[in-house]
Amino acid sequence: MTSDPTEPVGSPRRLDFTKGHGTENDFVLVPDAQGSIPLTPSEVAWLADRRAGIGGDGVIRVVPTALAGEPAVMDQASDARWFMDYRNADGSVAEMCGNGTRVFAAYLRREGLEQDPEFAIATRAGLKHVRVGAGGGHGDGGHGGDGRGAGARETGETAYAVNLGPWRLSSPAEAAAQGSDALVKVDDHEAVPALSLDLGNPHTVVMLPAGRELDELDLTRAPFVQPTPLEGTNVEFVQVLGPGHIRMRVHERGVGETRSCGTGAAAAALAVRWWAGGGDAGADGAPRDQVTDLWRVDVPGGTVHVRALPGDQVELSGPAALVADGTVELPPRH
Ligand SMILES: N[C@@H](CCC[C@H](N)C(=O)O)C(=O)O
Q1: Which of 191, 278, 309, 317 is deepest in the core (most CB within 10 A)?
Q2: Per-residue pLDDT averaged across 15-31, rounded?
Q3: Is residue 2 situated within a structural domain?
Q4: Tens digits of per-residue pLDDT, 220-279?
Q5: Is the Cβ–Cβ distance between 20 and 103 less than 8 Å?
Q6: Is the beta carbon of 236 within 6 A of some atom in ligand 1?
Q7: Measuring from atom 5 of ligand 1, which residue has the nearest CA?
Q8: pTM score, two decimals?
Q9: Could you tell me if 156 and 18 lie in one domain?
Q10: According to the annotation, is 99 in a ligand binding site?
Q11: Assigned domain for 314 exists
């Protein structure tokens, strides 16, 4: 998705910002309490630039839901005070960001904009419900007491669990018939079958083929996905380490390789679970008790947990950290 706001010529603008990350998927947050900072794609790309700007995988405008300016988002205003206006590093608009929801929640809490331990945030993919201090890891049942759940390092990070809402296979009939609905080719190797899932944003999950090392994949270029999704896709490469435990690397739409992707971790766990027979369709007829609902997902930037919930809902949990605050002067518009 790409937005195309008018870019009026004007004098340089000063913006307050906060830098944060969730398992090293990092974001520049821009508070916009009046809904009056319509960042253009080039301004977003500049803010996300690691050399000329602040640097991040994405930019998140923190704006009152009622002032979002997008009817489908403003419809959520009675349930969520704040809208996570998410943009990728290249300036394109995305519907959702799993790690971003936790960092967004951490910002709302720190600023006193949300005080309850549970609240909803508005996104382009609908309402997302957040629980503070919910690690979600194996052993704590998803209700970590001290706020430092699984994946939270000793750096002042707090754990959050977010219900990412409903997910679905993008092409259920094709996936049921073949176990896959796409082919993905990375570097110059052969194309591998993959599964497309919709987590509010698009994902294509690839099981690491035998003989290939996850660490050796060249993700400096976008993997070739066929059929080519019109809106692009995020591509996850998965290695199974044990029951309920996977490793993942991701090439994100609008960014490139990132050190973590929350919706991608959920897509990866759900794809592995589905391949194991855990889909509602019963894929290969394997008994459901052989299919776990709780996954540990290791990513280059840390660990998150994914929990499959009834009704095709899925919960993501992991840490969020706010690491810097500052003011920046945007380059003048031309
Ligand atoms: N890193 C995010 C996903 C961000 C959006 C994605 N690049 C897209 O374009 O869909 C996550 O944690 O989910």
Answers
A1: 317
A2: 98
A3: no
A4: 999 999 999 999 999 999 999 999 999 999 999 999 999 999 999 999 999 999 999 866
A5: yes
A6: no
A7: 97
A8: 0.90
A9: yes
A10: yes
A11: no
